[in-house]
């Protein structure tokens, strides 16, 4: 073959190869020339500040550290529809014909050898061998319930393991409104989910944990970190990766899903309960033996206090620890063990972490001055500080006598002498009977009701006995306009309470 022929052949082969490449590129959408003509902008429009970048890294680091410390819990439990609570967020995807429901929740690893903290409502009513735990590394274990506490909705379960990564437990007393927090759990079956938000409020009471006697401890940390069914028992952590709460409830109403706020049991309370459950399988807490309610501005003014927060002692349990320590009805508790107490649920939570036989130091306001009382706690009584007195009874008491009423127009109610029969019936030797209460009046707003007996009043911290209608008339006339006082009353049930009302009464 001539040299010219060889060169011609080479040219044709080269052209063919190039043509083929172009043809292939037209079908695949990527070719020799496409990349050289098309490019995308990958430059960041701005560089975040070092503090923002560091915060971003902190969220990521905390998630990486905490995720392995939170477990996924699957539970088969007996169905009890009567115990349904719309605030719980235990994920219940299905129910079979044997009335066995299968749901999921979360748990926090407490120890290397398999103790796990969760909510009672996650494992409550679990059938035998009905609890399964899945770790972050996908290992699965059967679990058993070690102990439960219905008053705090805390439970501890156990798996047979010896190489787990326990969570770091923080100090929930240091939690502040506005600080960043992260919720770690398994919402709606999506395992190892992390959300973030801030602490919206502390010491929140939402009225979901009450037994038949009205007992329960609620001192929730409120947050806007998104949680949903399945997050129950999971971790609420700070930006140091420490658990500060156990996610427990949502403000979702009957929808059962997150609508903006969730609530966590403070870890200090959960930790105290968990220790006893791990040791004894139960939690026995100490009680002061008092009935209480929150102090508002009217109460504080009537008591002559210099602060508008605290806990008012409505009554004492006979033979209770409080009575033995010298507490009196009408006392205002403002500190427990040197820490301020602003509400009933705060007092309940702090006392509820102690056992019978242990002591608490109470700073109280009485008769215009502060006193300190040391109370040695006793075992549970029927009525105690965990039965918050709450709102006064909004019922009409049965009238006993209808003679000679005296009307106090501005307050909207009338009183009359109490008969000997009524005194005997109510086990009382003084007072006046409320004869009538006008609707939407100041007396009505104060929850005064027909049939109540007013036998004492509190003004600027001082007690005034009401023995007769004349006594009450004199007391009412002595009040300054706008002054708040407390009326001590007794119901036909013989329950005693204090009702706040503002002057004028006449």
At the first level of CATH, the class of the largest domain is: Mainly Beta
Tell me the strand percentage band. 25-35%
What coarse outline follows from CA principal-axis ratios?
elongated
Helix content: 10-25%
Which architecture of the largest domain does the CATH hierarchy give at level 2? Beta Barrel
Tally of strands = 28
Given helix and strand content, the structural type is alpha+beta
Low-confidence stretches: 21-32, 81-90, 386-402
- Overall structural domain count: 3
Tally of contiguous helical segments: 11
Radius of gyration: 33 Å
Alpha carbon gap, first and last residue: 132 Å
How is the main sheet built? 8 strands, antiparallel
Mean pLDDT: 85
CATH fold type of the largest domain: Thrombin, subunit H
Compose a concise summary of this entry.
This protein is 21% helix and 33% strand. It is of the alpha+beta class and 506 residues long. The strands form four sheets. Strands 1, 2, 3, 4, 5, 6, 7 and 8 form an eight-stranded antiparallel sheet that branches. Strands 22, 23, 24, 25, 26, 27 and 28 form a seven-stranded antiparallel sheet that branches. A six-stranded antiparallel barrel has the order 10-11-12-15-14-13.
Task: Explain the overall architecture.
The protein is 21% helix and 33% strand. By secondary structure, the protein is α+β, with helices and mostly antiparallel strands. The strands form four sheets. Strands 1, 2, 3, 4, 5, 6, 7 and 8 form an eight-stranded antiparallel β-sheet that branches. Strands 22, 23, 24, 25, 26, 27 and 28 form a seven-stranded antiparallel β-sheet that branches. It is elongated and about 100 Å long.
